[in-house]
Amino acid sequence: MNGVFVLSTLLISAGVCLANNTVGQASAYNVLAELDRSREDLVNIICHTNANRYSVRDGHTRKVETIESELRIIDGADSYSTITLNGHAFHSMHDLPGAWIMGELGFIVDVSRRDIEKLSKAGVIPGRALSPPEAEPLYEVDFFDPEESGWTLYTTKPRGAWTVPFSGKVLISIGTGRLRAIEWRSEHLDTPEEIGISGLTWRVEFKEVEIENRRVLVPSRSLYRVSYSTRSRRTDWIDTRYSDIQRFGANTVLRFNE
Q1: pLDDT of residue 120 exceeding 80
Q2: Considering the entire predicted model, what is its pTM?
Q3: Domain ranges of the chain
């Protein structure tokens, strides 16, 4: 791979790791290769999602609503079905009122990888080693994506779409080399006054599970936060949990009555 990766006090070049005593014996992992591996894991998955939406206005927090759905990730594309909002059925996520994330989990991995690869071609990936107390040591790799990224904000009232620039970070476990989280953040947005959205944050967390005797990476939680440029200091966020995760594919057998 071209380029030199600088992660804290680690130097990674052509797959060779040089570490000093500050980092100790922690292994350095190829960020792009891990994102490729993670992307391969995130195919042909079906799971249940439970998303709770909260709102803060003038310092007061309240739970607004709950959405349940079935999520299928087929060849990297997300598809939602059996969608209910507070028990009421909806045909599509685009029909839901308010600000909901309809993010493609494969998309957040693909775009993050693309932007980090651009940095690698420039010679350096900015990043650092994190050792939070009582938590897993991580590598944090930072990147920036311009407005042509394709991260799009959709609104229903009024109906519209806005492509937004953002800064991002990828967190990878030092101990296992597996992806732990990706976060995108966009601030100081200039949306129409009737929409009033000034900032977006989207964070997806991952974990390893065993499916069919194989350890694979799957989504565990996502947080989507929307800030508004209003005097009420309004912020909405959606906390989504993923459960009942299964894989389908080559081992699926269709049987017909003869």
Answers
A1: no
A2: 0.80
A3: 30-247
